[in-house]
Amino acid sequence: MKRRESPPLYLITGIVLGLLCGLALSYWVFPVRYTDTQPSTLSESQKAVYRGLVGRTYLYEADAQRAFSRLNLLGDTDMGAEMVVQAQQMLANGGDATAARGLALLASLLTQPGQQITPLAAVSEAATATIAPLTPTTVVGTATKVNPTNTPFATFTPRPTPTARPTQAAPYALVSTKEICKGADTPNLLKIYVLDTSGNGIPGVEIDISKQDGNYFSFFTGFYPEIDPGYADYLMVPQETYQIRVGESGDLTGDLTPAQCTDSAGKSYWGGLELRFKQK
Predict the structure, then answer these.
(1) Over 69-98, what HEC string results?
(2) Digit-coded pLDDT (tens) for 167-184
(3) Contact by Cβ (8 Å): 257, 217
């Protein structure tokens, strides 16, 4: 019986070295480069960047059709949910608030497609156009013979100081406050509804909430279009005091605390609050 001979060691070593060299060449020397690919092939982190750019661009272009055409390229199963989740994460992590607002507005358009916004570029141009240019005034005088005297140093006439513009009035007023007592197992939510003069919800309105320790948090309406386009909520902590500002130039509310509720057995528990703000 003949003994089976094993392959020479140098052959195995050559195969291993060849594989290692091939991997090194493919990863570092000649890596694969993707060009003109579909956004659906991006990684999740890159999709989030793409989605945020679409939300920011929408605020400047106000072109919903173009924005949704760009978002469709991502191939999301639930486009609205993806935008809402990303917008909430951006605000919670101190990310781009402008992009988060754009995503919130786009999410609300899925349930109320008739809404329109004014592009930010148009707002900036309108504000710039209100500044009147200064008109130079020509002063004509007659020549007067002056005896030679010591000429003093020239003095400068102070320019008029600009007049401060009046601050904008609070665009939203608190019209109702209601305690929510639905059981001890219900989250202590601060539910906020922002409505226009006709009573319809307004998405994309900024809400600032501040606490006793000086910390504050900003979020927007429109993250839950299935509830109401002007709806937003915040989870309150028992015995904590809050103040709310709705809109960029709104007034702070008074101190707000979770509702103190009592169940049928006479046991106390913490509840929530519902605030409704209406456009003036």
Answers:
(1) HHHHCCCCCCHHHHHHHHHHHHHHCCCCHH
(2) 334 589 999 999 999 988
(3) no
Number of domains in the chain: 2
* Alpha carbon distance 258, 263 (integer Å): 15
Q: Which residue has the tokens 């140098």?
A: 10
d(CA 241, CA 212): 6
How far is Cα 106 from Cα 21, in angstroms, rounded to an integer? 49
DSSP 8-state secondary structure symbol assigned to residue 165:
P
Contact in structure between 111 and 229 (CB atoms under 8 Å): yes
Long-range contact set of residues 171-175: C-beta below 8 Å, sequence gap at least 24: 171/247, 171/249, 171/250, 171/279, 171/280, 172/205, 172/246, 172/247, 172/250, 172/277, 172/278, 172/279, 172/280, 173/277, 173/278, 173/280, 174/253, 174/275, 174/276, 174/277, 175/276, 175/277, 175/278
The DSSP-derived string for 24-53 is HIIIIIS-----S--GGGS-HHHHHHHHHH
Which residue in 175, 225, 177 sits closest to 201, CA to CA?
A: 225
Q: How far apart are CA 95 and CA 89, in angstroms?
A: 8
**102 and 178 fall within a common domain:** no
State the CB neighbour count (10 A cutoff) for residue 58. 26
pLDDT digits (tens, 9 = 90+) for 2-59: 556 666 777 788 788 888 888 887 777 777 776 767 888 888 999 999 999 999 999 9
Q: Which residue has the tokens 């710039």?
A: 128
The parent domain of residue 187 ranges over 172-279
93's tokens? 């992590």
Position 125 in a domain: no
